[in-house]
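Hi both,

Apologies for the delay on this - the queue was longer than expected. I finally got the zinc ion-bound model through. Below you'll find the protein sequence and the ligand SMILES exactly as submitted, and right after that the structure tokens for the full complex including the ligand.
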Amino acid sequence: MLETICDILVEAYKRNWITSRDGNISIRHHDRDHFYITPSGVRKQTMQPDQFKKIKINKFTCKGCGPDGNNLLQWSWEEMPYSDISIGLKPSGEIPLHFGLQKEIDKDEVRVVTHIHPTYTVAAMHAGIELSELAKDFPELSRYTRVAPNVGDVPPISKELANECHEKLGLNINTGSIKYDIVGIKGHGVVAIDSSPWRSFEHIERLEHICKIVLASGKC
Ligand SMILES: [Zn+2]
């Protein structure tokens, strides 16, 4: 599926939904304690599968770390060797966003997290449109894609961006369950989640199509 992720980045680039070095995608299989994520700073439209970074998920109990001195379940990540080329690369700067969404996933699940910058969706948020409200007026969108409330202005590559996205997506940090398929980040882009690269892409495409229609109507 890493090749498919590369295909998606090519498609996103062709559609002007990213410039060369934008965008990041991760993928995890439920039965593995690691996930793959795109590296930072490479041209995404020419990315190869051996450029991915492999990230190990460590899960441990922190004794006495809870608010009442109780034990607390915690997670951390570390890079694992993958390929000669990837050794010299760093994982995407948005790794806190991806890690939070990948550290716990359902049994039998494959999870793909796709972050890109689709033009009309970002334009719609810039124009003040709340994407979750917009979805209610367009059944062809809301039938297949659950749209979360927008994330406001947060700096890119920040813990704040990660936390806000997790919260708006309705992420349960202990089980990894998520209430929505896509969330928009004002002035920035979207994060979509599904069980395959193209399925996550379809959420973005569907929302983008509606945003284009709404902006073309001039009624916003
Ligand atoms: Zn971005």
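Main takeaway for now: The helical segments are 2-14, 84-87, 95-102, 119-126, 131-136, 139-142, 159-168, 197-217.

I'll put the files on the shared drive as well.

H.
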